[in-house]
## 1
Amino acid sequence: MKVETVVQLLPEDCGLQHSIVRLHNSNIDSKRLDRERFFRREAVVICNPQNGSRVLRYAMGTPGGISITKRAVALDYDAVDVLGIRFKTDVDLEIRRASTFEVYQWFWNHPDLGIRLSTRLGVMGGILGVMGFLVGLTPFLHL
């Protein structure tokens, strides 16, 4: 999806805890039937092709209070800063579904230390668990 305008997200939706992007309701499918539209709370990547920057956010519809057109999105200040754009100006952004690898990569390098640390500990715990399982199987493989 191409984006032409970015408006400021409401203060109650901002922050690292939420990490959402608000889209026009015609671009959101809450019933998960139409793959042409984004699903609610689906991870999406917002790319700025002019400078190569990108940010991961969760797609949400518009509850009201913000005027968002079909080619506009509402982002928080942190996302606008990372993308190198300004509010209420003409932009050329692309939004697409995030792959599983992109989600793990985003959380591996997340700006919030707590999220970054828990992701890295979880991945390392999974790797060590698989290694321990394989070491536990070695006595049975020599029979």
Note: Helices lie at 77-83, 100-108, 113-141.
## 2
Amino acid sequence: MITPVVEGPLTGPELDELFQASWPGHRTTDFTPVLARRLLHVTARRDGRLVGYVNVVGDGGVHAFLLDTTVHPGERRAGLGVALVRAAAAAARERGAHWLHVDFEPHLTRFHEACGFRPTAAGLMDLRPEAPAPPA
């Protein structure tokens, strides 16, 4: 089993490489602003290569938000994603968070339940320019 590391060394180019391998259609991204605004991140490596990542951002108070849980396709279905999320939750708790929020698509429900999340009612607004306008 690969051991997740809280605040392990991480560069934008290697994160971009992981996203390229893991997310079809991912476009090259400058991760500098993402890494600068995080509360914490958790990484996992195999033979020095980044194979897992999760980002946690906070509101400066008791709420933290789990983002970008990513596991390299060659490392999936072995428990690494759950280990990354659990390490992130423990680290967020240590930094004062009381609540860890996550949004996900329905097909990821079982994964997030295995991580310890429970369903709640939430709202989401699409702010992209091409998104349909919200109802009046």
Note: Helices lie at 12-22, 32-36, 80-94, 109-115.
## 3
Amino acid sequence: MIRGYVQSHLPMPAILCYLDMLNYGLIANNYTFPPLIKAYTLLVPSMKLIGRMVHTHIVVFGFCDDPFVVSALIEHYSSVIEMGIARRLFDGVGKKDVVLWTAMIDGYGKMGDVVKGRELFDVMPDRNVISWSAMMAGYSRVNDFEEVLGLFTRMQEEGIVPNESVLGSVLTACGHLGALTQGLWVHSYAKRNNQDRENPVLATAIVDMYAKCGRIEAALLVFGGIQNKDAGAWNAIISGVAMNGDANTSLGIFAKMCGKNGAQPNETTFVSILSACIHAGLVYEGLKLFNQMGVVYKVEPQREHYACVVDLLARAGMLEEAEKFIEEKIGGFGGIDANVWGALLGACRVHQNVEVGNRVWKKLTDFGLGDYGTHVLMYNIYKEAGWEMEAKRVRLSLTKLGLKKKPGCSLIEVNGVVDEFVAGDHSHTRAGEICEILGSLF
């Protein structure tokens, strides 16, 4: 009953059921506490006292050394960002099974602490496919996609059969790195196991990978074969087509999504479709969609949708309208969004509007949000407009604050291996040969 309530997202009845059980004189066992801990997690942060009671009962009934129960506790404390308590629980268990190790690695991964997670992963006595999946997911969260592919290679060498979660992480990494060869291998593997159509989550990851690698025809083919298309699949193809420069097709797919056999659009859908309008300069279409979000599609606009509208107006040269929109609409979210104002500043340089750029710059500096990029951008705006004194002040500010440009980075895949190159860095093993060839080209 407790588990049933939790699976139905009814945490409070689950806890009351547990209290009734105790009133009947029944003693909880190691099958009672994991769903009970899940119930408490669903209630956090409103009912911390209940969580303390549950943890206290675990201690009283003597289950502090039970890996099954401790794994559930670790998962809970990870979700409420209390990794110190989670680690003490983990260290307190004498005989740790693979589930307990994996729970701890997954907890560190969710916190973005892949260093500690990897330390445990490397020393755990036995690993299963879920352990590998948890470590890869951790690296994906911090955008370290090269490590994801490195782990996948090791996993294959050790003969571990990947599950759908592992394949999803690898496809995400391939998309971000442009590693098409490895992406093709994963798709081929999924095809052999009938996972590319039957599993919409994995199929969506395949669509996203092809789109990011510039193979939009392949992305459309896989999308067409998905049997039960959810919002995620529609979002992936709408975004992918737009990313590859075909906004009108993207709008057409959006119309099909909203049709009889489509799916209900969500917040992500509108970020994708508004981005398509931005890059194609479709101001009227973008504004119309934004205005219809809440009224027609019942999706409440969020900060990122307002930011899309600002970008849409700014790129079209409607800088005063974009500035007014920020003041009236985005200001209601509280604080100041450096990315939104920064996008407007970039448009000011493109359209050579020093007056609006000057006002935007003052806002950014008043809130201490001027980074290296915005300083250089504003310097160029002033310089190109002939505002020499202001340009000089920006350059002095750049020196005074000690801001430095982050070096550029690029990736290329050759024979299934992804190589990274950083500006000014010669640590690549074949740097000498590369420079020699580059010199011959010049």
Note: The beta strands are 409-414, 417-422.
